[in-house]
Amino acid sequence: MESNRCVVATGAMCRIGPDGGILKSDPDRATDLYVGMMTGTSLDGVDAVLADLAGPQPRLIGHAHLALAEDLRKELLLLCASGWDELHRSAIASQHLARSYASAVQQLLLDADVEPEQVRAIGVHGQTVRHRPDAGYTVQLNAPATLAELSGIDVVADFRSRDLAAGGQGAPLLPAFHAGLFTTHSPRAVVNIGGISNVTGLPAAGSGEPVIGFDCGPGNVLIDAWAAEHLGDRFDRDGHWAAGGHSDAAWLQALLAEPYFSAPPPKSTGRELFNRQWLSHKLAQRELAPRDVQATLTRLTAASIGQAIAQHVAPAVDVLVCGGGAFNATLMRMLGEECAPRPVASTATLGVAPDHVEAFAFAWLAREHVHGRAVSLPAVTGARGPRVLGALYPAG
Ligand SMILES: Nc1ncnc2c1ncn2[C@@H]1O[C@H](COP(=O)(O)OP(=O)(O)O)[C@@H](O)[C@H]1O
Ligand SMILES: [Mg+2]
Q1: Which atom of ligand 1 lies nearest, measured to the CA of 234?
Q2: 174-342 belongs to which homologous superfamily?
Q3: Pocket of ligand 1, candidates 80, 231, 328: which has the most ligand atoms within 8 Å of its Cβ, to mutate?
Q4: What DSSP element (H or E) covers 104?
Q5: What CATH class is the domain 22-169+356-393?
Q6: Ligand nearest to the CA of 327
Q7: CB–CB of 197/339 below 8 Å?
């Protein structure tokens, strides 16, 4: 069937059907737009990207960050542990979250001058409140049906449970996307430093070696908790506070003795282990100045990543960093020391802002779901085989 062509304000091409509507599933059209959304362990807010996945290289068209309302943020944090009437409270928080997602999508599309009908699907991770692969489940609060209704766009959600059902950890899911975006002629490590940090080991292009990946341990989660208590700020901005402290070598060794760090992959973790109680327990009977605690926690994130790379991604020639931790200058300096002689750089040096990468991955994961492709990596998650990730909630 013949169709007209138009140029949308983003400069991208799209096709218009006989009734004037844009053909969402037209395989010939020149753009293939997806929204990806992430709300991670840090609970800092919603990251949303608009991506064009039509070409061989995925292209970022827009980004929106929406801070979570303070009462929702507090409730989500409370829901990370057992509590009174948590089924009801989770359902209500999920609805609020979906409304925040819908606002982020609206803002994103407005900024890019793109209509909902032009977007093939939204990939949305949801908010993890429990991650228990040992018990066969993981819980991401979300209300994808509400988001589909509010946005008028198909939604793909619940990306982790299919891998868990196949015996995997359901995490991390980023390595396959990192492989597509960052593989180069030499082996490389990619580190995502969100609330939790995870490492991807990329073999050299064409080597035929498998991509590996696992959660390293705490990324920003402990750094943020300590900063919130002592600075009254959500995080240690640019790592400024930690920069003036001294890392305590003996305490650092005690922290690194946590068995999670030396456990072999596949492994994944969350607030279940690395939380304020863990920190209190480790701090007991230590006389440390708050600023030195902050410096040591920052060093812990860097050292655990450095050790993980040395142990499991040894051939890596360089280290690329994404996630909000890339903005913490003290953490980046320490990471440079812990990974030496490998150079450490933000993904921004390759033109991808570090805070866009994870949401970008969920746009790609949504596309892979729509096409029915099994993209989970059993070598990473430990599952019995690759599976099609996610579940679709149609808009119409
Ligand atoms: N300017 C900054 N200085 C220091 N840390 C920052 C800065 N910007 C972001 N961060 C850190 O990044 C975190 C958010 O990272 P993000 O990748 O969104 O994690 P998550 O996926 O867990 O939400 C914040 O909680 C904070 O610790
Ligand atoms: Mg975040």
Answers
A1: 25
A2: ATPase, nucleotide binding domain (3.30.420.40)
A3: 328
A4: helix 86-112
A5: alpha beta
A6: 1
A7: no
Among all chains, which residue has been given the structure tokens 């059209």? 29
**In terms of C-beta density within 10 A (0-12 exposed, 13-18 middle, 19 or more buried), how is residue 181 classed?**
buried
Check pocket membership of 172 for ligand 1, CB cut-off 6 A: no
Who's near 134: CB < 8 A, 6+ residues apart? none
Q: What is the pLDDT of residues 346-379, one digit of tens each?
A: 999 999 999 999 999 999 999 999 999 999 999 9
220 lines ligand 1 (CB under 6 A): yes
pLDDT tens column, 24-83 = 444 445 899 999 999 999 999 999 999 999 998 899 999 999 999 999 999 999 999 999
| CB of 239 sitting under 6 A from ligand 1 | yes
Domain locations in the chain as residue ranges: 22-169+356-393, 174-342
Closest atom of ligand 1 relative to the 223 alpha carbon:
27
Report the C-alpha gap between 27 and 147 in whole angstroms. 25
Q: What pLDDT digit, counting tens, does each position of 278-289 carry?
A: 999 999 989 999
Distance of CA 169 from the midpoint of ligand 2 (Å): 21
Residues 6+ apart with CB under 8 A from 70: none
